[in-house]
Each structure stands twice: as structure tokens, then as C-alpha cells.
């Protein structure tokens, strides 16, 4: 495959990622269903690359104990652990194991990182223009209310995307998916506290 063809493939994949991103905002159900059937490896690669750029950006923005590349590698490990958790758990609950595809988990969970990326990027930009400490004035309180509402909206969007990612990848019913998500949180919350204690992530990038 020559360089020109690779460049065309990357560009087309980039446009698809933009289209999928918009679709996840306005029609997450239909969009995530299409994502679960994707096979274009350039799409998750582009998203992961953007996240790498973010980690490099944040490293120069704030004082960090650990190098950006190390924290990025840790994020990749966290992501792979999440994918492996649901993939292996689905093998235990699914009779027809051939229906379960690892690629479906990778694609859907990569796309579910968009709310996380937007939240971390926006908080980093706010750190530049509105660095702490912030005042307790009327405008300061108004901004705090706005930021909480903004964060909650992204959190709800994130939960919707994660649920849809698990649903279309596992092909399980509602109650079984909720059980798996709760089971995931049982080990993920202590793991997040562990990362916080070592000052790796205040909030896990996942």
C-alpha cells in the first residue's frame, strides 16, 4: 500500500470519526450500533492519537510528577483492562460465543471516550483562562453552577454511550448489562482510589 493511499484512508477515516461524533450527540443509539460493526482500524487509531496529543498538552500546562508518555501508557492499560473485563465476562454469559467480537468492544469503547476527552480538555482550557482559586462572588457561584451542570450533562452522555457500547458488543438484555456494569465498578472504584493515592489520576481517564 503506497503512501498516497494510506493518506486517503486516514482522511476518509477522519471524516467518518467526525460524522460518528456528531451522530453520538444527536442519535447515539443508531450511531453506536453502526460503530459496533466497524472494521476500519484507522478510526480508533485516530481517536487514541488525539488523546495522546491531549496528554502531551496537559503535561506542559501543569506541573506533573510523571512523564506524559508514562501516564498515556497507563491510560492505554486501563482501557485494555476495561475492554478485556467486559469481553471475558461476556464469554461467561453468552451461549453463542462466536457472536462476541473483541473488535466490537474496542471500537465502541474507544468512541465512548469522547465525553471524557471533552470534559478533560475543557477543564484544562478553563485552567488557563480561569485558574483557581475562584471567587465566591455572584459570577463565581454562577460559573460553578454552570460547570456542575455542564459536567453532569457530559457524565450522562458518557453513561449512555458506555451502556450502548456494552449492549451492542455483548448483545445482552438490560438487567444483565446493568449487572456487568455494577460488577465492573466494584473493582474499578478501588483501582481508581489506588491511582489517586499515587497521584497518577485524580479522575481516571476512561
Topology of helices and strands:
Elements: H1 3-26, H2 28-35, H3 42-61, H4 68-93, H5 102-111, H6 114-129, H7 138-170, H8 174-197
Give your account of this protein's structure.
By secondary structure, the chain is mainly α. Helix content is 78%, strand content 0%. The protein has 8 helices and no strands. It has helices at residues 3-26, 28-35, 42-61, 68-93, 102-111, 114-129, 138-170, 174-197. Helix 1 (3-26) runs antiparallel to helix 2. The protein is globular, with a radius of gyration of 18 Å. The chain starts with a helix and ends in a 9-residue tail after the last helix. 17% of the residues are buried.
Strand tally: 0
Order of helices and strands: HHHHHHHH
Indicate the percent of residues in helices.
over 70%
Biggest sheet overview: none
Mean pLDDT, as a whole number? 87
Number of helices, counting only DSSP H or I runs of 4 residues or more = 8
Helix-strand makeup class: mainly alpha
Strand content: under 5%
Distance between the termini: 34 Å
Backbone shape:
globular
Stretches where pLDDT is under 50 for at least 5 consecutive residues are none
Radius of gyration: 18 Å
Provide a compact summary of the structure:
With 206 residues, the chain is mostly helical. Helix content is 78%, strand content 0%. The model has no long low-confidence stretch (mean pLDDT 87).
